[in-house]
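Long-time lurker, first post. I've been practising inverse folding by hand and with some scripts of my own, and I keep getting stuck on stretches where the structure tokens seem ambiguous. Below is the full token string for one chain I'm working on. Before anyone asks, I'm not after the true native sequence, just a reasonable design that respects the backbone. If someone could post their per-position residues I'd love to compare against what I wrote down in my notebook.
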């Protein structure tokens, strides 16, 4: 089949600008540069070889480990006794096996967090692993990890916190001690512990900079190749006007590990959040007001607009600086426990992977070891599943054997096809393919980042159908859309900064699945059906993971007990219900998911709540009927009467009730109790006793159906026994039907 490429030029003229502009990592903007020249210069900004090599790693691991693992703190004080690091076992091979299985290429270890506790045998402090019980003070976690990385073919990076609370708080601490800057030799000699590497530096430094650089020298010369140095910008406390001599740090790093990238400085920037949120448009050509090659302080870039034309026009320098999308697999950077600290599921992690790696950034995922020196089983399971999905999806290119521009389909990033504004590329396949992912890469090393808008279309039913539309591409863009079957696809480029080099296009299929559903109801009876929340509460990114991964699914529901997959109505928005059974199911590509079922009680608008035998306010008690399971009512401890009365506003026929226990601390769960009913709120009659078992281990919504329906306007729920014998009652939600 003949190769097809169509290029349409629409009023594009050869630029008179940029004839003398050379490709560079940093390009200066002159005061009299017109906007056209600024954009021309932006099109010539390219990554360094180190940056390109680091971006090609795509998915890398973070490991936060230290005293906080044992104190369950996120930030330590610096004054922790090293004995608190009570590590008995260490299995860095297990870390690396799981990291490798996930498809990660590099692991960064927090060798010193803000507390100043070090995880290697440093010559320059006793506040670290050498003073802990681990291996009688002779352990070295960095060395162990370095050896495991070599065994599993992983690259190694280090996180060395410039902030150091031990050096701030200790009476002999060096941080901010007002020492003078004098000419110092780095590394500082230590009697009895010479270095095999005889390289030395002479820098103007104070005590803390000398300390910090001497530790850098240890790490960069004694633990094998280091490919990334991570400098965190967070700073819990400062002292004495301490300044960092980053100019010296940079010279030391560039000399000792010339192939490494530096995070938090000129090479790599923070994405602007710790939640796994990604920008829809992530330009890596970034505007600066000062020369980033000589700066010593780099502000965090947190705005949603990083490198649009409008931002570039404000610049004095343009510089290539890619982001790392850093977040944690657990709620927090350090391990706390396996029960209350929730873990991201594979859907969430895989979605972040596709958004970050497929959005012109590197994905940096933290996996904190537990107090046994291992990754917890839950975390390992997620890593293995994510790695399986990456391989299953992206190891097979459905355009293999397709007809199109040879340099586009040869799977080489150093060859490319030139495309122009309003041009298009058509690719045909020998037979129809079904796909829902398209991967596109620009030749950023040779042509920079230039595409500003691109559109993917497929030939369907005799015409071109738009599948996806996005802005920039850069190193990599992954387009996601509903399944489509075609033998012809087209890429269009409506807008770009200059003719671009497209190095790779590949098509892939992700085995999407219909998501599990849940429903929520407001006080007026309005019900919303949606994919089940992932349950991860730490620094939430706000993304609709189910829609991102499983584009095209539909929801069907019934309110009469029928099977929603066969007899359901397609859900298009909130619905009104009262005292009906909701059944709902998601359907994708003809496959139905699990059916969601819930008996929805009477609408609660107009209900009034009172607490029996207590002086608690009705406002507090109203949390039991507010249709918000995250809020809850709790009776006063030791109250003579642990019961709650509800005025339903009118007389209703009751067939039973539903009790949702509060999950905050599992105290006061109603294991046994009695239901009382009344028509006037004064004369009470016993309806039935109820029992709910195993609430502490399974705190889900429970139902109790009456042996026979009853008429009542007032209902009282009295607890006679709590699951935890707490002496008070609690409930997140109460429903009657």
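-- Answer (accepted) --
I ran through it position by position. Result:
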């Amino acid at each position: 089949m003949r190769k097809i490429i169509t290029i349409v030029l629409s009023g594009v003229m050869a630029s008179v600008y940029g004839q003398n502009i050379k490709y560079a990592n940093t390009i200066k903007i002159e005061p009299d540069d017109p906007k056209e020249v600024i954009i021309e210069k932006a099109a010539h900004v390219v990554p360094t070889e180190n940056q390109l090599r680091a971006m090609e790693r795509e998915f890398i691991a973070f490991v936060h480990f230290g005293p906080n693992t044992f104190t369950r703190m996120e930030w330590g004080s610096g004054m922790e006794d090293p004995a608190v690091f009570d590590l008995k076992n260490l299995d860095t091979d297990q870390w690396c096996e799981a990291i490798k299985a996930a498809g990660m290429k590099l692991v960064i270890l927090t060798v010193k967090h803000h507390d100043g506790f070090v995880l290697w045998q440093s010559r320059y402090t006793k506040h670290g692993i050498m003073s802990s019980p681990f291996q009688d003070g002779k352990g070295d976690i960095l060395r162990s990890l370095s050896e495991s990385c070599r065994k599993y073919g992983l690259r190694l990076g280090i996180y060395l916190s410039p902030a150091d609370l031990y050096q701030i708080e200790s009476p002999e601490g060096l941080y901010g001690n007002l020492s003078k800057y004098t000419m110092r030799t780095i590394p500082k000699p230590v009697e009895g512990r010479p270095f095999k590497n005889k390289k030395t530096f002479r820098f103007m430094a104070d005590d803390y900079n000398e300390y910090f650089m001497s530790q850098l020298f240890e790490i960069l010369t004694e633990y094998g190749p280091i490919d990334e140095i991570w400098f965190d910008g967070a700073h819990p406390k400062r002292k004495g006007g301490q300044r960092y001599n980053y100019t010296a740090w940079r010279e030391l790093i560039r000399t000792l590990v010339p192939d490494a990238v530096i995070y938090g400085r000129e090479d790599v920037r923070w994405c602007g959040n710790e939640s796994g949120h990604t920008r829809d448009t992530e330009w890596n050509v970034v505007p600066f007001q000062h020369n980033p090659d000589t700066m010593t302080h780099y502000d965090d870039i947190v705005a949603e607009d990083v490198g649009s034309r409008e931002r570039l026009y404000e610049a004095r320098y343009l510089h290539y600086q890619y982001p790392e999308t850093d977040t944690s697999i657990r709620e927090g950077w350090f391990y706390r426990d396996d029960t209350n600290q929730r873990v991201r599921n594979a859907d969430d992690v895989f979605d972040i992977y596709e958004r970050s790696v497929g959005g012109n950034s590197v994905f940096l995922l933290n996996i904190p070891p537990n107090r046994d020196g291992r990754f917890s089983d839950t975390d390992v399971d997620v890593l293995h599943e994510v790695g399986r999905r990456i391989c299953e999806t992206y190891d097979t290119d459905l355009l293999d054997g397709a007809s199109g521009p040879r340099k586009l389909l040869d799977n080489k990033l150093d060859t490319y096809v030139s495309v122009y504004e309003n041009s298009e590329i058509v690719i045909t396949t020998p037979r129809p393919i079904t796909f829902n992912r398209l991967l596109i890469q620009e030749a950023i090393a040779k042509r920079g980042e230039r595409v500003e808008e691109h559109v993917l279309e497929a030939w369907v039913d005799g015409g071109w159908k738009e599948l996806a539309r996005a802005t920039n591409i850069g190193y990599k863009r992954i387009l996601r859309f509903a399944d489509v079957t075609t033998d012809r696809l087209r890429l269009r480029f409506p807008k770009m900064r200059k003719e671009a080099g497209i190095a790779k296009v590949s098509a892939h299929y992700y085995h999407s699945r219909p998501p599990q559903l849940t429903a929520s109801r407001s006080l007026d009876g309005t019900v919303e059906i949606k994919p089940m929340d992932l349950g991860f509460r730490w620094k939430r990114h706000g993304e609709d993971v189910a829609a991102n991964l499983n584009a095209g699914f539909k929801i069907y529901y019934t309110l009469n007990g029928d099977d929603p997959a066969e007899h359901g109505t397609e859900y298009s928005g909130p619905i009104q219900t009262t005292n009906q059974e909701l059944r709902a199911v998601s359907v994708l590509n003809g496959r139905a998911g699990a059916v969601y079922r819930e008996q929805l009680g009477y609408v609660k608008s107009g209900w009034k709540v009172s607490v029996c035998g207590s002086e608690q306010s009705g406002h507090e008690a109203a949390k039991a009927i507010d249709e918000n399971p995250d809020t809850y009512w709790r009776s006063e401890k030791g109250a003579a009467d642990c019961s709650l009365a509800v005025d339903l506003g009118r007389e209703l026929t009751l067939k039973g009730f539903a009790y949702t226990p509060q999950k905050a601390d599992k105290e006061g769960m109603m294991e046994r109790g009695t239901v009382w009913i009344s028509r006037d709120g004064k004369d009470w009659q016993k309806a039935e006793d109820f029992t709910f078992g195993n609430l502490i281990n399974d705190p889900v919504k429970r139902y109790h159906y009456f042996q026979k329906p009853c008429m009542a306007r007032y209902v009282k729920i009295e607890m006679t026994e709590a699951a935890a014998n707490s002496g008070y009652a609690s409930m997140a939600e109460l429903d009657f039907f």
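A couple of notes from the structure itself: The mean pLDDT is 93. The chain has 16 helices and 35 strands. Happy to go over any region you disagree with.
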